[in-house]
Amino acid sequence: MTDNLAERLDRVESELAIQRLVHEYCHGADKQDLRRFTAIWHEDAVWAPSPDQRFNGIDAIRAGVKAQWQSFQQMHHWTANLVVDFDGDRASGEADTELSVQLIDGTWIRGGGTYRDVYTRRNGIWRIIYREVSSSFDIDRLPPGIGSPVT
């Protein structure tokens, strides 16, 4: 660890900025807020939400999340255990997530996984350059109507 106060402050600010990216991902996805969701990515980012899906570039990421929103009535993420390692203006991160989604037919699915991220700082701003979801698992699949919101 460095004794240089400026370097230590930069590290703390950088870690907080990256934590914010991780949280904004969840808020943007869950609230179907396209502006919020796309603000966390660099233009040339890659998002791999599953082993069989890979979106290259912000336009493809935007289209990918919109397609997800068409498949779900609701989506709720909780992300924890974020660990970030820095190498100058590049960092890698790993976080666990649990999520609940309500499909169009009303069925609820709960599951989780691990986000493996790469972040870069360009022009003083941290954003995600690469995110892959791995180690996905299903907690349970509930029958339609169970856990549906009260209207």
What distinguishing features does this structure have?
single chain, 151 residues, alpha+beta, 3 helices, 30% helix, 51% strand, globular, disordered C terminus
List the helices and strands and how they pair.
Elements: H1 5-30, H2 34-38, E1 41-50, E2 53-56, H3 58-71, E3 72-87, E4 90-103, E5 108-122, E6 125-142
In short:
With 151 residues, the protein is α+β, with helices and mostly antiparallel strands. The chain has helices at 5-30, 34-38, 58-71, and strands spanning 41-50, 53-56, 72-87, 90-103, 108-122, 125-142.
Please tell me about this protein's structure:
Helix content is 30%, strand content 51%. It has helices at 5-30, 34-38, 58-71, and strands spanning 41-50, 53-56, 72-87, 90-103, 108-122, 125-142. The relative contact order is 0.17. Mean pLDDT is 90; it is low at 147-151. It is α+β, with helices and mostly antiparallel strands and 151 residues long. The chain has three helices and six strands; from the N terminus they run ααββαββββ. The protein has a six-stranded mixed beta sheet with strand order 2-1-6-5-4-3. The radius of gyration is 17 Å and the shape is globular. The protein has one domain (5-142): Nuclear Transport Factor 2, Chain: A (Roll), CATH 3.10.450.50.
Q: Number of helical runs?
A: 3
CATH topology: Nuclear Transport Factor 2, Chain: A
Structural class: alpha+beta
Strand content: over 45%
Distance between the termini: 53 Å
Write down how many β-strands occur, each being a DSSP E stretch of 2 or more residues: 6
Shape: globular
The tally of domains stands at 1
CATH architecture: Roll
Which whole number gives the mean pLDDT? 90
Largest sheet: 6 strands, mixed
Top CATH class: Alpha Beta
Protein name: Nuclear transport factor 2 family protein
InterPro entries: NTF2-like_dom_sf, SnoaL-like
Domain SnoaL-like: 11-131
Pfam family, one: SnoaL_4
